[in-house]
Amino acid sequence: MIKFCSLYSGSSGNSLFISDGRTKMLIDSGISGKRIIEALVAIGENPSELSAILVTHEHSDHIKGVGILSRKFDIPIYANENTWNAMEQAIGPVNIKNKMCFCNCEEFKIGNICIKAFPIPHDAVDPVGFNFFLGSKKITTATDIGHITKELISHLMGSDLLFIESNHDVEMLKVGPYPWPLKKRILGERGHLSNEMAGKVVAHLAKKGTKKFLLGHLSRENNFPELAYRTVCNVLDENDICAGRDVMLSVALRDQVGEVVEV
Ligand SMILES: [Zn+2]
Ligand SMILES: [Zn+2]
């Protein structure tokens, strides 16, 4: 059984927790080390038992606490080579034995959990999402996605639990306070995924058998949890899928520890 929990999710900082009871890992640590420790304690986990911090990409909302936690608790950091080069200065000195490198699309193992990083379209040097495999279970995390591609869908397919970005409402973003270049970046091919597009992905995968969905990386200025949930529900409704009955759907909050989901 795998336990999954969103500690923080959104433009202000991201960190997800995944564990099979023995191997405990973080996906990103984009908020202060202190706040991540607080969140881990809140779900009954001991930060000194972490086996790894996996890094998706070098943006500060994903790496802010990575170096601090690694130094404090002697935790290995896993990232691909390009991301290492891009983030190394920002995270500060790391013990050489804790500097671990993976290659995209090649499986590697931490404890009993198999992990595969896959590329995502986003404006970082080499951003990735992750598949986690344990026995017959597959869990996938994919945020910071500019647009959906066939290749990306193939990596999400067959997941028992999918954590997917539902970043913004397009209308809110368009009329909102962001300067135009930033709006263009978010809406662009290498920006972030809208609620509507997240809905389409969720509906597509629900039809293919995925039962549990968590929406994450919500924007503070251009979204709110009820709107993300409602928009995705509406797309599901159009496909005769009912959230709560046919599939589990919930929203990971920006600054609040989420529920622990088991698969
Ligand atoms: Zn990013
Ligand atoms: Zn991000």
How would you explain this protein's 3D organization?
This protein is an alpha/beta fold and 263 residues long. The protein has one domain: 4-Layer Sandwich (Metallo-beta-lactamase, Chain A). Helices cover 31% and strands 24% of the residues. The strands form two sheets. The protein has a seven-stranded mixed β-sheet with strand order 6-5-4-3-2-1-14. β1 (3-8) and β2 form a beta hairpin. α8 crosses α9 (225-238). The chain starts with a strand and ends with a strand. Bound molecules: zinc ion (2 copies). One zinc ion binds at residues 57, 59, 122, 124, 144.
Give the helix level as a range of percent: 25-40%
Major sheet characteristics: 7 strands, mixed
- What's the overall geometry? globular
Strand content: 15-25%
Query: Strand arrangement, largest sheet?
Result: 6-5-4-3-2-1-14
Order of helices and strands: EEEHEHHEHEEEEEHEHHHEHEE
Organism: Acetivibrio clariflavus (strain DSM 19732 / NBRC 101661 / EBR45) (Clostridium clariflavum)
Keywords: Hydrolase
Pfam family, one: Lactamase_B_2
InterPro entries: Metallo-B-lactamas, RibonucZ/Hydroxyglut_hydro, WalJ/YycJ-like
Quick overview of this protein structure:
The protein has 263 residues and is α/β, with parallel strands linked by helices. The protein is 31% helix and 24% strand.
Question: What secondary-structure arrangement, pairings included, does this model have?
Answer:
Elements: E1 3-8, E2 15-19, E3 24-27, H1 33-42, E4 52-54, H2 60-63, H3 66-73, E5 77-79, H4 81-91, E6 99-101, E7 108-110, E8 113-119, E9 128-134, E10 137-142, H5 150-156, E11 161-165, H6 170-175, H7 180-187, H8 195-207, E12 212-216, H9 225-238, E13 248-251, E14 261-262
Parallel strand pairs: 3-4, 4-5, 5-6, 10-11, 11-12, 12-13
Antiparallel strand pairs: 1-2, 1-14, 2-3, 7-8, 8-9, 9-10
The structure holds zinc ion (2 copies).
